[in-house]
Amino acid sequence: MLTADDMAPDFTLPATTGQDVTLSALRPAPVVLFFYPRDNTSGCTKESKQFSELLGEFEAAGARVFGISKDDMASHDKFIAKQELTVPLLTDADSDVCEKFGVWAEKKMYGKTFMGIVRATFLIDGTGRIARAWPKVKVDGHAAEVLEAVKAL
């Protein structure tokens, strides 16, 4: 998994805004990328809602925020509508971006081993370097912690 001081790999992914998002095109704004396993699951819903609730504060601090999962655009659209999310979501259907950031990994649940997204967040500064990385995120209070890190840039 990438860590602080690594250069963030550039990518272009489709977004729920209807346009593709290219990471390097967002410079010099800081960017928050939160990777989550699946739409409409309890932890992912809670995390996405917390980022949505604080989106105005992230924007006031000059930062852009995006959630990323492998779910397709139809799933993202339903997730946004059902949960009244304001944070834009990106689709990484082939897990290419997840692999580049090191969040596509072997996981275990109920005695079974499978590949999936490890919940992680990255704060990328205006030069494209990772300023902060949060591996294996615990959802409660996480979005507020990331906001404080954005304000400290």
Order of helices and strands: EEEHHEHEHEEEEH
The main pleated sheet reads as: 5 strands, mixed
CATH topology tier name: Glutaredoxin
User: Gyration radius, to the nearest Å?
Assistant: 14 Å
Pfam families: AhpC-TSA (PF00578)
EC number: 1.11.1.24
GO molecular function, one term: thioredoxin peroxidase activity
Subunit structure: Monomer.
Describe this structure in words.
One of its GO terms (molecular function) is thioredoxin peroxidase activity. This is thioredoxin-dependent peroxiredoxin. Keywords: Antioxidant, Disulfide bond, Oxidoreductase, Peroxidase, Redox-active center. The protein is an alpha/beta fold and 153 residues long. It has one domain (12-152): 3-Layer(aba) Sandwich (Glutaredoxin), CATH 3.40.30.10. The chain has helices at 42-53, 55-60, 73-83, 96-101, 142-152; strands at residues 12-14, 20-22, 31-35, 64-69, 89-91, 104-109, 112-117, 120-124, 130-134. The longest helix is centred in the N-terminal third of the chain and has 12 residues, at 42-53.
Task: Write a brief structural summary.
By secondary structure, the protein is of the alpha/beta class. It is 30% helix and 27% strand. It has a single domain (12-152), classed as Glutaredoxin.
List keywords for this structure.
two-stranded antiparallel sheet; 153 residues; 5-stranded mixed β-sheet; 5 helices; alpha/beta; 27% strand
SSE topology:
Layout: E1 12-14, E2 20-22, E3 31-35, H1 42-53, H2 55-60, E4 64-69, H3 73-83, E5 89-91, H4 96-101, E6 104-109, E7 112-117, E8 120-124, E9 130-134, H5 142-152
Parallel strand pairs: 3-4, 4-5
Antiparallel strand pairs: 1-2, 3-8, 6-7, 8-9
